[in-house]
């Protein structure tokens, strides 16, 4: 199974909120759930999946290794801990959540441990997140581009990440767009609203359709049933090239996720 084009994000969602969001998402037809060790909700995600009617084999589950677990000694034990919380023997995709802060842990060590996790069957696919061109270059040198299923990075109309996208395309590496709604900001943009209105869709759907049409996977999150449903329906929207171009012109390098340990961005 490839990475399903639309997934359900779970960042910030805790306890009842994450349970309700994932349960509703599964009911509506989401089959790709994105969690992470640092989100502190793997156990709730696992419980909700276990309680649902959806068979494990029909689901695509991603988790991400936190920066404290990037050494050879910690990566696999931390993934086993995630699997225990998720109540699974294997996840579909395991990502390195962020490059090691200040590159303290050599990337060759981390990528080798991640590949070993795949060899051991703990994860079906492996990949990276928030990797710059420099980090992607090192990761490719370490384990080969064919072993890197995706680079999950922030992409939305206001941060289009063209350089990283071009590099990934050149190496045949798929990209997943996180914060595909710019954490709600796309809904306020007058240009997006106007184009969306013309098509009888929402600005959120427009942003998702624009990303999907470029071949990115998207992982929007929502706590609202109606939003979860309309975000999923974005996969049925096709945009004319003129609208694609109009949205391309909205790029303003506006990055939302940039913690103090972030790498030097391209
Ligand atoms: N790898 C990384 O470092 C990283 C970093 C950040 C995020 N992520 C992943 O990406 C996922 C998505 O990012 P995100 O959750 O930060 O931001 P997002 O998906 O861009 O935006 C979520 C926000 O948009 C609202 N929303 C969702 N659908 C809507 C709709 N149809 N109409 C109006 N408002 C809507 C939600 O509010 P309501 O709940 O009210 O709908 C929520 O406030 C995360 O959950 C996480 O899984 C990964």
From TrEMBL:
The active site is at 39 (proton donor). One of its GO terms (molecular function) is methylglyoxal reductase (NADPH) (acetol producing) activity. Residues 6-251 form the NADP-dependent oxidoreductase domain. Coiled coil: none annotated. InterPro entries: AKR, Aldo/ket_reductase_CS, NAD(P)_OxRdtase_dom_sf, NADP_OxRdtase_dom. It is an enzyme of class 1 (oxidoreductase). GO terms for biological process: methylglyoxal catabolic process. The record marks 64 as: Lowers pKa of active site Tyr. Substrate binds at residue 97. Keywords: NADP, Oxidoreductase. Pfam families: Aldo_ket_red. Its EC number is 1.1.1.346. It catalyses: hydroxyacetone + NADP(+) = methylglyoxal + NADPH + H(+). Belongs to the aldo/keto reductase family. This is 2,5-didehydrogluconate reductase DkgB. The lineage of its organism: Bacteria, Pseudomonadati, Pseudomonadota, Betaproteobacteria, Burkholderiales.
């Amino acid at each position: 199974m490839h990475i399903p084009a639309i997934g359900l994000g779970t960042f910030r969602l805790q306890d009842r909120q994450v349970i309700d969001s994932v349960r509703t998402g599964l009911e509506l037809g989401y089959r790709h759930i994105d969690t992470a060790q640092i989100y502190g909700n793997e156990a709730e995600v696992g419980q909700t999946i276990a309680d649902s009617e959806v068979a494990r084999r029909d689901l695509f589950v991603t988790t991400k290794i936190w920066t404290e677990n990037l050494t050879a000694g910690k990566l696999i034990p931390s993934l086993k801990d995630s699997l225990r919380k998720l109540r699974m023997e294997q996840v579909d995709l395991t990502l390195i959540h962020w490059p090691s802060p200040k590159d303290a842990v050599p990337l060759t060590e981390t990528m080798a441990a991640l590949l070993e996790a795949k060899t051991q069957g703990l994860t079906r696919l492996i990949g990276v997140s928030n990797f710059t061109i420099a980090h992607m270059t090192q990761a490719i040198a370490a384990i080969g581009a064919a072993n890197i299923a995706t680079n999950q990075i922030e992409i939305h109309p206001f941060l289009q990440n063209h350089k990283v996208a071009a590099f990934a395309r050149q190496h045949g590496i798929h990209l997943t767009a996180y914060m595909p709604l710019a954490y709600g900001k796309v809904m306020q943009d007058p240009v997006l609203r106007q184009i969306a209105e013309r098509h009888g869709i929402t600005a959120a759907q427009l942003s998702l359709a624009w990303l999907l049409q470029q071949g990115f996977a998207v992982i929007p999150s929502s706590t609202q049933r109606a939003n979860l449903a309309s975000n999923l329906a974005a996969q049925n929207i096709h945009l004319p090239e003129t609208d694609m171009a109009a949205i391309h012109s909205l790029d303003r390098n506006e990055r939302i996720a940039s913690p103090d340990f972030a790498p030097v961005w391209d």
